[in-house]
Amino acid sequence: EVRLVESGGGLVQPGRSLRLSCVASGFRFEDYAMFWVRQPPGKGLEWVAMISWNSRGIGYADSVKGRFTISRDNAKDSLYLQMNSLIPEDTALYYCVKDPVTGWSGGGGFDPWGQGTRVTVSS
Amino acid sequence: QSALTQPRSVSGSPGQSVTISCTGTGNDIGTFNYVSWYQQYPGKAPTLIIYDVIKRPSGVPDRFSGSKSDNTASLTISGVRSEDEADYYCCSYAGSLTYVFGTGTTFTVL
Question: What letter does residue A4 receive in the DSSP assignment?
Answer without folding.
Answer: E
